[in-house]
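Why predict the complex rather than its parts? Because the way molecules touch one another can change local conformation, and only a joint prediction can capture that. The input here totals 582 residues.
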Amino acid sequence: MAIDKVWVVAESSGGAPTSLTLELLTKARSLGSVVEAVAWGGDVASTAGELGSHGASKVYDLGDLGDALPGSRVAAAIAAQIQAGNGPDLILIGTSYDGRDVAGRLSARIDRPVLTNLVDLTVEDGVPVAHHAIFGGTQTARSRFTAEGPGIFVVRAKSFAAEPAGGPAAEVAPVEVPEAGATDTARVRERHVEERTGPQLDEADVVVSGGRGLGQAEKYEMIEELAKLLKAAPGASRAIVDAGWVPYAYQVGQTGKTVKPTVYLACGISGATQHMVGMKGAKNIIAINKDQEAPILSIADLGIVGDVHKVVPKLIDALKARA
Amino acid sequence: MNVAVCVKQIPDPAAPGSLHPDTKNLVREGKLILDDSDSYGVEMALQLAEHAGGGEVTLVSMAPNEETSGLRTALAMGAARAILVSDETLAGSDALGTAKVLAAAIKRAEPDLVMAATESTDGYTGTTPAQVAELLGLPSVTFAKRIDVSEGSVRVERQTEAGYDEVECPLPALVTVTAGVVEPRYPSFKGIMAAKGKPVEQLKVTDLGLSPDQVGSAGARQEVTDVAAAEERKAGEIVVDEGDAHERIIAFLEQLKVL
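Output of the joint prediction:
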């Protein structure tokens, strides 16, 4: 079974493809001979250049979805293409808020299984093989589909590096979106952009994360201040997200974001497997924890056995003094 | 208002997980507990039902060995009843197979609202809720950080990359909640005692009108081929803070040219 056509569900933000989309396109080039993108929004034409340079020869344009949530409509449109015999051999979707909606709905619609949380994808004897980091990244499982495709793969961010190949802009092919009925009745009434200074968590060169060792919600301010001084993005362990100290968007780990910064600074995080799988790809890890036995110290390049309430304020003062 | 909450009973996440050497399925024998991620959905469902001035919260779960210990925890929090699908043919189910079972079981509860966690702690595929919604023909709003119900519709603050969206959706609908949206209550002693007498409807796959080849490893159409140890990261330098550890951190950051 050779892989001929690969589709990438291409999300965009502010008129440009997301970095995750470009990562998927880059990988798609090495998987199939034809790479095509499926995109939506009012500005698909403006993304065609970048989609093309990263490998897409064509972009199916579902048009402006207005205030609808994408999941149901995008799944319906892809399913219609597949049913019309125009489908790909495999579909790559990013692990994003909307990406997972599309993947789940598409899977149910075309009655095909889905493999998720991929950190790599290879082809062996013509069969796509998914790689997953399991048990906190201590083991790698490989899996594959055992039935006819198209196979749906949901890939975690930062699994591949995005690299342009220098191709021409993708040909924009408008596609009609079929009616999705009751499944398509959720409407966005208002979009709120939360002011964030500094880099995005999953793109930042430096990430400063806090965990339960901070003791109380108010102490997270310390993490934000330190992050600001280091031009870093603030992150969090699941424990303090579960406790409601910071929003889910800050979470690093298995059920949160995967980060691969140059420096990951973990403050008061013990290193549950749930957390480690999301950050052990960092080039350098610095950890501050008062417990010498904390698992995070076993993977840290620089491990400080100490109290975050003492070390972090001094670090903040020292950085301020340098500024 | 009737709310159905999908709850998963999982091996204790604090204990190291393992895969079965032959099937490479996650080992789910032994005592299972309520997935922490689901306690938020249960709490939210209880609050919404209370706020609406009535209605029942029904738990829907699929688990091996007729496991009910996790369900009892959620019943003790205040859920009225549970539907449990437990069947040997379900071993090795993938997300879509699981969704088929949950969707069929949810239908029996005829809920106005279906709630689930964004993903389970053990398998964390994160696609099951959207699959369930599609199979039931329902709209869905995932990654809710706030939920209000009024006059036949649900209003949700949905997490986005940029911030959040206010989304409105007519009922019936499916909503998934992120952790931390509400503070799950601790079961009271009275709640724990009451939970023992609450009804748990035990179902088999055929009771749901599904055939065994749609579910379990037979229906999974995917397999784990092998598992290998990942490359290990080695510990580097360990410094015990004696009041000057911050200087060591700054020196390291300078060395990395971050400063």
